[in-house]
Task: inverse folding
């Protein structure tokens, strides 16, 4: 009988013909057409976690109780709440897309799994201006590729993966307003479409970009971490965080630079829309998507003002 929603009824004598999870991952990657090796590796790893704990089963045969069991296993491995949420989001996406594209009927057990408030998520701290100035001075003194990368992040607010995957041609210096073009590449995609943007280079970001361009013998800006095929942001993160802790203490990580720039822009009364444009943050309303956005000159003026305020704050702190 053609009974509505019969696929929701679980019965041992009804065979589930949906793809096995590990096969579904490959189908998902094929549909996505992604070439980003980090994206591919992460998708496969998350599915492997599920297969390890619950078995490699047809994607619609998992029960909600099994999803809860997998959630608990993730926490037992020491994963933070945000990490567990990302893992579940990836599994949900794999199952949902395969169901949609291949006409698979059935439910997604990972779609509404309860996530307890573990109070395990520690908010990343912004780097205070006086500490940031010390970091930037130490970068100048060391003057090498990892330190250029830190300096670039400190005055642009870019994500680490965005900066690591820059090509030399993304840096434009022979113009009235030097700038960096953040755009997707075969070796490194972007987090969102809105992440594509152009950021003026001022202060330490300009110094770092100039030195990196002169030193690089390849088409990549930071060849130590990107060879034009693979972008190794994890390796860069480990190296930079280790050095950063030695200079600034354990309270800050490399991503703190991004938080720091947002706070620094707030201090100089930068409009929130302009802050979002500089950082490539998602737009808060439909209206923000209209028009061409702020000009490069206006962005440069605000970042310069932000830079000048850093020296004022630093002098105040050091002389108090």
Result:
């Amino acid at each position: 009988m053609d009974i509505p929603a019969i696929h929701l009824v679980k019965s041992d004598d009804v065979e589930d013909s949906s793809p096995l999870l590990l096969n579904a991952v490959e189908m998902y990657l094929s549909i996505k057409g992604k070439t980003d090796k980090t994206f591919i590796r992460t998708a496969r790893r998350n599915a492997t976690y599920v297969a390890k704990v619950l078995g490699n089963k047809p994607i619609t045969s998992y029960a909600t109780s099994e999803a809860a069991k997998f959630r608990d296993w993730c926490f037992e491995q020491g994963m933070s709440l945000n990490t567990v949420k990302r893992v579940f989001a990836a599994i949900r996406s794999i199952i949902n897309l395969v169901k949609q594209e291949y006409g698979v009927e059935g439910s997604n057990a990972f779609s509404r799994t309860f996530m307890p408030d573990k109070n395990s998520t520690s908010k990343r701290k912004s780097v205070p201006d006086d500490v940031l100035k010390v970091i930037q001075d130490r970068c100048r003194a060391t003057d090498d590729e990892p330190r250029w990368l830190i300096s670039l992040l400190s005055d642009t607010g870019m994500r680490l993966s965005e900066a690591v995957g820059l090509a030399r041609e993304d840096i434009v210096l022979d113009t009235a307003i030097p700038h960096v073009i953040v755009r997707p590449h075969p070796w490194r995609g972007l987090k969102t479409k809105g992440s594509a943007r152009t950021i003026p280079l001022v202060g330490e970001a300009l110094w770092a970009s100039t030195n990196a361009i002169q030193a690089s013998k390849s088409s990549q800006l930071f060849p130590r971490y990107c060879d034009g095929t693979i972008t190794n942001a994890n390796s860069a993160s480990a190296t930079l965080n280790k050095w950063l802790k030695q200079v600034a203490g354990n309270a800050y990580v490399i991503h703190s630079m991004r938080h720091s720039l947002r706070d620094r822009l707030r201090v100089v009364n930068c409009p929130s829309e302009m802050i979002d444009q500089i950082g490539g943050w998602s737009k808060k309303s439909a209206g923000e998507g209209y028009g061409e956005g702020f000009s490069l000159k206006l962005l440069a003026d605000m970042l310069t003002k932000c830079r000048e305020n850093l020296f004022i704050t630093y002098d105040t702190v050091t002389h108090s």
Observations:
- Strands lie at 171-172, 179-182, 197-200.
